[in-house]
Specification:
β3 and β4 form a beta hairpin. This protein is 28% helix and 36% strand. α4 (98-112) crosses α5 (121-128). By secondary structure, it is α+β, with helices and mostly antiparallel strands. The protein is globular. It is built from five helices and seven strands, in the order ααββββαββααβ.
């Protein structure tokens, strides 16, 4: 049997497209007692980096100041034949420069809301207030796209199917 892992790895271009298209991520840092701290986050994908905007006093920022190791997972698909994902591991850089914070907030606003205009400035100003941004400097990428296996479509089933449109 052929190596399935090798069959489902995404190319760099596929990883870029996937991270550009998806909306939500799960971010992991290490909590004060060593436990893994997971949070769902919206993000910007720009110049090969995941960028997050968050409150400067958030738990994730406190964790990353103490230990900058960070992982981010972005995934999609409701059935095995559709599963896709990218897991990024690396070092977080906390950026407090107001110009960079503004730029990232605009990128995230546009990603999830609408193109930025000056009329929308007050909303982005609220978004950027007391915020820092976190840039993930990626050291390892893992990816998978089960659509590459050429499986027959699997019907959406199980007890969770109604909640995702099945």
């Amino acid at each position: 049997m052929a190596n399935q892992r090798g069959q489902i790895v995404m190319s760099d271009a596929e990883v870029d497209a996937f991270l550009t298209e998806q909306r939500s991520s799960t971010c992991a840092s290490t909590g004060p007692s060593g436990q893994i701290h997971l949070v769902a986050m919206w993000y910007a994908w720009h110049d090969g980096h995941i960028w997050l905007e968050t409150k400067g006093k958030s738990q994730k920022v406190q964790n990353l100041r103490r230990d900058p190791r960070m992982s981010v997972l972005v995934e999609a698909g409701h059935t095995y034949d559709e599963l896709r994902g990218v897991s990024l591991e690396g070092t977080a850089a906390i950026v407090e420069d107001p110009d960079v914070v503004w730029d990232v907030c605009v990128r995230i606003f546009e990603r999830y809301n609408a193109p930025y205009t000056e009329e929308l400035r007050p909303i982005v100003e609220i978004m950027a207030k007391n915020r820092v941004v976190v840039r993930l400097d990626v050291e390892r990428v893992r990816s998978w796209d089960h659509r590459k296996l050429g499986l027959d479509p699997i019907p959406l089933g199980g007890t969770t199917a109604p909640s995702v449109g099945g």
